[in-house]
Each structure stands twice: as structure tokens, then as C-alpha cells.
Amino acid sequence: MPDLGALVDSSMNKLASIEDRINSSTFGRVFRLDGSGHPKTVRGSSFFREIRAGLTTFATMAYIVAVNAAVLADSGGTCECPPGSEPGCPGDPNYANCQAVLKRDLITATAAIAGLASILFGFLTNLPVALGPGMGLNAYFTYQVVGWHGTGKVPYRIALTAIFVEGFIFIFLALTGMRQWLVRMIPATIKTACGVGIGLFLTEIGLSYSAGIGAITGGFSTPLAIGGCPAEYLDAKGECASHIMENPGMWIGIFIGGIFVAFLMAFKVKSAIVIGIGIVSIMSWPRNTPFTYFPYTEAGEERFQFFKQVIAFHPIESVLNVNEWNLSGANGAQFALALITFLYVDIIDCTATLYSMAKFCGVVRDDGDFPRSTIAYCTDAFMISIGSLFGCSPTTAFIESGAGIAEGGRTGLTAISAGVCFLICLFFAPILASVPPWATGSTLILVGCLMIRQVININWQYIGDAVPSFVTLAFMPFSYSVAYGLIAGMMVYVVLNTMIWVVVRLTNGRVTPSNWHEKEVYDWGMASRDLPGWMRCIQRRILPSRFHMDDTKDDVELVDNDSAMNAATNSISRSNSAEDKDVHVVESQSHPNAHVSHISHVYPQAHIQPQVQPQPYPQPQAPIQAHHHPQGQAQTQVQGQPRPRDHDLPSLD
User: For the chain, which end, N or C, has fewer CB atoms within 10 Å of the first or last residue's CB respectively?
Assistant: First the structure.
């Protein structure tokens, strides 16, 4: 036994030595791994940790290989009904055979697009975010645009052409800075609520049957109903007819994939999430168990026959480059309808999801932007167009990437690792597509738990901020769409705050709502520093003096602190909307002997900004006192502001 222990120690030391060499190599410098010597090193990142995080991201996303193909196959794809048949061709054997081939084509297309998009995105942006055909967007594509078996208003081929064009429109918007500007225009409290809403969305997915433990179902008399029954006891409405909460697979997912993984995370065990998913998957493969993934049913037999192949590759036959490029006549009207329909949903869904994942990584800067954002938005848009050539719905950042981030992923190497797994899935799809949903469901719930803690950063003190934020975070899971949740929250925000503004304006400030002083400072992102670069260049040439005055601020400036995802504050009321803001203190030339020091012990995100022209200090919103010390320095103190607690993302090593 001592020899075995020594062997293990020797192996671990060798692996650590190999990791150190990789981290300090040119490869490590490309991804800014810790120890690479890069001036912008990502602290805490290492080669093996990024690989583990990528495997975790892939494990939580692997379900899309089968689920996305099944959803898109419901659109009918390129299959055509015989003349004179009923809409949707119910019961037609030839149509059913065509759909079977279509589904296998879409399995290959989904894995290929997810792999290529994740690798390209990770390499160009160095963000641990994986891309793939969006799950909410695929349902919108199938059931709202194309329709079940092609019974909608827009044919499948024309819808793909609209997605192709949409991608290039998004690239134009990203290059001109309009997508980044769109993010800045969203109020900080709504953006925080988006992250919370996505956490609840992930939790709902993790509780569902299609990609989770199956604890809830869609109800008929109620919006949701308790589930937990084996699949054979689901009635025609999708509810459990009996055996509620008696599904053995669900309980294995809860205790091993959920509670046991949380136990390992408590002790910072490496690869805790991967361990949980692997154990549950292996336990679910034997057939003669009550929790097998391959029961003796038609669906179970089909999955088992696919699983037995182990290695298999199915080339795309029916959906590769089938876009309809002839847009004359009625095709043009259908194309315009599809393009407009996709644009307003996709730009919000894709942009909000990508921004929320960047925020979860902790890389969003004080101005609401994040490094290489233009490249990130352009890559995301480019893969939307490429995905349409593979017959897929719009590609987007996957919120399941949060699982890899929670595992310790901090660089693009995480996304590349997940992408490589998807490409391997092209050949080992029988194995990798046989991860049961209850193996990953609890993982999604745990990630939702990590994301929802941002809720304390929402401004609950003022009704004009609290209600829109709540609508946003609640509507995302219940509408099963990030885009609809954000649209609902922004609508409520604009209408409610416009009504309040009218009353305050008409009464000249004599009538104000309760806690009016607690409202967040918001300028609609129209300040000069918020404009895209090309707009600032034009403004600098046309109105140089105005631009100069906009860019130089004095006294106290409150800036939305969107990047502090983990800087959770306590429940003390925000004083004059200064909580969760960066305080910029300006040294006045009227006090040449006073030096304002960095107040990290009181407010760790304070910054010093020099003043261009001497002006006296106006009365700031948050009272600031300067006490002179014998050394000739002034120590600045913010009254009434509690010191925020720093919460780091869980590091499992």
C-alpha cells in the first residue's frame, strides 16, 4: 500500500510538472494561463483545470445533440407531403422514413456546428463560453415560424435563408458597435435580473423531463405539475397519471448527480460535476435495472441499438446547403416575414445570453463591456450564418457554459475543449449521446443556484427598478425564453418609469414616489463615453468642445458596476443609488495640498480621476468627508456605505 501511495504521488507530481510546462509555454501564453508571463494573465487558470471545465460544459450540453435534432425534425425539414394529403402528413410511412433520415442528419449537423462554433469562439475571444444551436430558438424556429411538419407561414428553406442573412446583419451591428450599445442601454438592474432569470431558466430545464431529472411536467389545469413518474406513466397531456415521484432515475440524479456533487463541491474536489455525471450515466446503461436509459420499449430499443454501435458516423444527406436563394414573388414576402420575425427575438436572446455568460465569468468591465466583445459578437453572428447552411436554427452562447465556469473554467481553452468533444461526438455519438437527462439535470440546478445569488444586487428599494427586474427574472423561465423575459422587463421599465417621470415633471418635483432618492442613475446609454467608437469620432470632428466636456467629469460620478458579479452586498438600503456603483473622486486644484488616496478599505472599487479645470466640489449624492492627516494626505470616507463582501466563484481544487 505504501508503494501504491508513492506511485500516486509520483504520478500527480509528474502531471503537475507537465501542467506547469504547458502553462509557461507559448501555448499557455496564447490563452493567458496562470504562469505564462502574459501581462494580462487570467489568474487561477491552468491547463488541466480548463480541460476539466470543458468536459463539464460538454457533459451538460451533450443533450442538445439528440434534443435539438428531435425539435428541428418536427419542422419537417426538406421532407414533402404527397399531393392531396392532410397537413403535416400524419401516418404517412414515406414521410416518417424521410423524417428518420432527417433526424440523423440533424444529429450530425448539431454536433458539427456546436464543435466548430465553440472552438472558433474560444480561440478568438478567450472566453469559456461554448456555442451551439439555441434550445429556445430551435423551438421558436420549428413551432412559430416553419410550423409542425411545415404547416407554418414560412417554408423551411426560406427560413434558413433568413437566418443566413440575419447573421451578417448581426456582424454589421457588432462592427458598428450597435450590439454593444444595446447592452449599455439596458438598465443595470435589468441586466442583473437577466443573470438571475437565466439561473431560474437553467433550474427549470434541470427539473424537466427532456433535459433534466423529470421532477416537473407541463400541466393542463395548472401551468406546472409535480412529476417524477417513469416516462411510461405520462398521459397524453404530458402529466403523471400515477407513480408520482417514484421514478428511480430521478432519485439517482438527485442524490448522486445533485447532493453528492454538492458535497464534493463543499470540499473543493476537482471535477466534482464530471464525477457525478459519469457515475449516474454508467449506472443507467445496464438494461435490467428499473432506472436504465435503455428500457424494453420502442424508444429504449432504438437508443440501445444506437448505443451498441459505439463508433458511427452519419454523413449529412438532406439538409446541407438547402437554403432557398430565389426570393422572387411570394418567396420574397415569406423571406421578409421570417427575417423580421427572427431579428427582434435573436438579437435580444443571443446578445443577452452572451453578455450574461461574460458577466458570470467576471470579465465585464465598469462600462458594461467586456474584452474582445466585438470579436465575440461577430463570431457569434458568423456562426449563425454557417449554422443555417447546415440546416440548423440560430447558433448562440449556451447558458450551460455556466457549469464549466463553476468548475473553474476561465479561458477560451474551456470552450475549445467542449468543441473538440462535440467533434469527437461525430464519431462516438452512440456513447456521448447516451448520457441520460437525469445525469445532467441536477448539475443545471446547481449552476442555477450559483447564478441566482446575483439577486441581492438588484435595486429592490425603489419600485421603478424592482418591478421591472422581477418581471424579467420571472418571465424568462415561465416563457422559456431569454428574449421574451428581457422584452417584458424593458417594457415594464419604460412604461412605469415614464409615467413616474411625467408626474414628477408636471409637479416640478413637488410630488415624487416613495424612495425616489433610491432610484438607479440611468442615462439610456447616450453619454459620449457610451457611444460606439465611430460615433465618437464623428462627434469629435463635428462638436469637439461638447465632446471634450462630456468626457471630463468632476466631483462624484456614479457608474454602473456590471462587472462585479461576485461582489455581493448586504441588505442595507442603497444610499442615493450609490451601492453597486464605482465612485470616481476628483482632486480639486483649489486644494493643491490635499491628496485623495485610494479608499480600498472602505469601498474597494474607488478610482481617482484627475480634473481638467479647477472647480469647487458640488454637493455629492453620497456624503464624503476628507480628514487631513499630519502627513499632508486626506483620507476620504463614504458615509452610510457598508463594505461589500467579496464572494468568489467556487474553485474546486
Answer: N
CA quadruple 116, 117, 119, 123: dihedral, nearest 10: 140
Distances (CA, A) of 467 to 217, 461, 464, 523: 28, 10, 6, 19
β-bridge mates for residue 131, sequence order: 397
Distances (CA, A) of 372 to 365, 378, 379, 381, 544: 11, 10, 11, 14, 28
pTM over 0.70: no
Reduced to 3 DSSP states, what percent helix, strand and coil does the chain have, rounded to the nearest 5? Answer: 55, 5, 40
Q: Strand locations in 127-178, DSSP E?
A: 131-133
Nearest residue to 274 via CA among 467, 507, 421, 439: 439
User: Look-up: residue for cell 424508444?
Assistant: 299
Is the pLDDT at 428 greater than 90, yes or no?
A: no
**Residue 54 contacts residue 95 (beta carbons within 8 Å):** no
Please give the grid coordinates belonging to residue 457.
444586487
Record the cell numbers describing residue 228, joined without a space: 417524477
240, β-bridge pairs: 234
In sequence order, the 6+-apart residues with CB closer than 8 A to the CB of 595 are: 587, 632, 633, 634
**What would the grid cell of residue 638 be?**
463614504
Taking a C-beta distance cutoff of 8 angstroms, is the pair 359, 191 a contact? yes
Contact 441, 256 (CB under 8 A): no
Report residue 16 as a C-alpha cell: 503537475
Q: CA 421 to CA 122: how far, in whole Å?
A: 14
The predicted pLDDT at position 643 comes to: 40
Whether the predicted pLDDT of 365 surpasses 50: yes
Element (H, E) at 537: helix 533-542
Q: How many CB atoms lie within 10 A of CB 266?
A: 11
- The span from the CA of 127 to the CA of 355, in Å, is 11
Whole-angstrom CA distances from 41 to 24, 232, 278 are 11, 52, 32
Maximum Cα–Cα distance for the chain, whole Å? 95
As beta bridge partners, residue 559 has: 582
Least confident window among 171-175, 257-261, 339-343, 634-638: 634-638
Rounded distance, CA 604 to CA 634, Å? 17
Say which residues have a Cβ less than 8 Å from residue 328's Cβ, sequence separation at least 6.
none
The CA-atom distances, in angstroms, between 452 and each of 360, 445, 455 are 11, 10, 6
Number of alpha carbons in the 13 Å side-chain half-sphere of residue 217: 22
- The residue whose grid cell reads 425539414 is 77
Whether residue 622 contacts residue 638, with contact meaning beta carbons closer than 8 Å, is answered with yes
CA 160 and chain centroid, separation: 24
User: Is residue 572 over pLDDT 70?
Assistant: no
310 DSSP assignment: -
Cβ atoms < 10 Å from Cβ of 30: 15
% of the chain exceeding 90 in pLDDT: 20
| C-alpha–C-alpha distance, residues 400 and 396, integer Å | 11
β partners of residue 428: 312
CB atoms closer than 10 angstroms to residue 527: 12
Nearby residues of 360 by Cβ (< 8 Å), 6 or more positions away:
195, 402, 405, 451, 565
- CA pair distance 317, 323, nearest whole angstrom: 14
Residue written as grid cell 461525430: 426
CB 417 within 8 A of CB 38: no
